[in-house]
């Protein structure tokens, strides 16, 4: 099956020898959100296809936190990554010429947004943010859009007196290190509530169609019947797949087409890359993320 898919992909892209001119290897960064080995497993199909397409050794890197991928892109030691909108903003604000956004994930209804989802254990009795007063709330990573940036802006708007400071409204605000860590911590009762990301489409019992909850269900980490949604953000633009801007033009064209065609050529690989059911990817530009960049600037002040 792998050979058949590889042949189908090969007919839609430039030859490897031409595409790889000017590079000796290709390096894919994988943003945090689940444990490193699961991330590497999910992206192995993309690594293999990339190596076939470019004709050079392709390596996967799964740093412990979002900052590792951001710094790799800024420093030129990574060539490709799927970033969250806030992580793209952080990269852009450090170096506007480091990367260029090329593709965005498309939901099964054709939309290109997702949500930050607040959740708790069903048996905790917590049904909304009103019930979280004095309790422990978990966020993923400071560079996460849905795991911190957007909830840190929108949750204080929910009710007067809510801040992101421990001991103000929430008894304690904790950073867990990533989406999977937040989900596991809530499920295990280590924290009372937390936020993660999901497209908000499909059934709650499945962890929605795509996102961190869906990945956790697929991995057997949680039974969604044990959890309850307690908050939902406004729509957030999906983060972009980015390429190092200084890559040769033919390499960028080959990689963009490879991922853009992945849903049609290997739906299972597209599922792995996109963290669930989607319609694949479509082109995107920097303009989609201007509002997130401005929000990031304001938070930094």
Outline the structure in words.
Residues 1-20 form the signal peptide. There is one protein chain. With 301 residues, the chain is an alpha/beta fold. It is built from twelve helices and twelve strands. It has helices at 2-10, 16-19, 36-54, 66-75, 85-94, 145-158, 179-188, 212-218, 249-260, 262-265, 267-274, 290-300, and strands at residues 25-29, 57-61, 80-82, 99-105, 113-121, 136-139, 172-175, 193-198, 227-232, 236-237, 240-244, 281-283. The strands form two sheets. The chain has a six-stranded mixed beta sheet with strand order 2-1-3-11-4-12, sandwiched between helices. Strands 5, 6, 7, 8, 9 and 10 form a six-stranded mixed beta sheet that branches. Helix 6 links the parallel strand 6 and strand 7. Helix 3 (36-54) crosses helix 9 (249-260), helix 4 runs parallel beside helix 5 and helix 5 packs across helix 12. It starts with a helix and ends with a helix.
Helices and strands in order:
Elements lengths: L1 H9 L5 H4 L5 E5 L6 H19 L2 E5 L4 H10 L4 E3 L2 H10 L4 E7 L7 E9 L14 E4 L5 H14 L13 E4 L3 H10 L4 E6 L13 H7 L8 E6 L3 E2 L2 E5 L4 H12 L1 H4 L1 H8 L6 E3 L6 H11 L1
Parallel strand pairs: 1-2, 1-3, 6-7, 6-8
Antiparallel strand pairs: 3-11, 4-11, 4-12, 5-8, 5-9, 5-10
Helix pairs in contact: 3-9, 4-5, 5-12
InterPro entries: PhnD (IPR005770), Phosphnate-bd (IPR017797)
Family: Belongs to the phosphate/phosphite/phosphonate binding protein family.
Protein name: Phosphonate ABC transporter substrate-binding protein
């Amino acid at each position: 099956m792998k050979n058949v898919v590889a042949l189908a992909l090969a007919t839609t892209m430039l030859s490897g020898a031409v595409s790889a001119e000017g590079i000796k290897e290709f390096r894919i960064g994988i943003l945090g959100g689940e444990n490193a080995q699961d991330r590497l497993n999910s992206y192995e199909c993309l690594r293999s296809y990339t190596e076939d397409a470019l004709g050079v050794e392709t390596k996967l890197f799964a740093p412990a936190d979002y900052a590792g991928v951001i710094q790799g892109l800024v420093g030129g030691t990574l060539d490709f990554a799927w970033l969250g909108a806030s992580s793209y903003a952080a990269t852009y604000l450090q170096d506007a010429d480091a990367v260029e956004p090329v593709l965005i994930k498309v939901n099964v209804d054709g939309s290109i947004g997702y949500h930050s989802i607040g959740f708790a254990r069903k048996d905790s009795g917590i049904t909304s943010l009103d019930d979280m007063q004095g309790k422990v709330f978990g966020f993923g990573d400071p560079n996460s859009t849905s795991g911190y940036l957007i909830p840190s802006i929108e949750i204080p708007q929910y009710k007067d007196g809510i801040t992101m400071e421990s001991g103000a409204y929430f008894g304690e605000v904790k950073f867990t290190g990533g989406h999977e860590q937040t989900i596991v911590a809530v499920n295990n009762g280590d924290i009372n509530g937390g936020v993660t990301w999901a497209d908000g489409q499909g059934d709650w019992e499945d962890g929605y169609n795509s996102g961190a909850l869906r990945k956790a269900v697929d991995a057997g980490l949680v039974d969604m019947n044990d959890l309850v949604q307690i908050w939902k953000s406004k729509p957030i633009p999906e983060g972009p797949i980015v390429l190092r801007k200084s890559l040769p033009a033919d390499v960028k064209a080959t990689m963009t087409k490879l991922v853009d065609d992945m849903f049609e050529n290997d739906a299972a690989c597209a599922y792995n890359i996109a963290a669930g059911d989607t319609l694949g990817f479509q082109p995107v530009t920097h303009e989609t993320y201007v509002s997130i960049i401005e929000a990031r600037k304001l938070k930094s002040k």
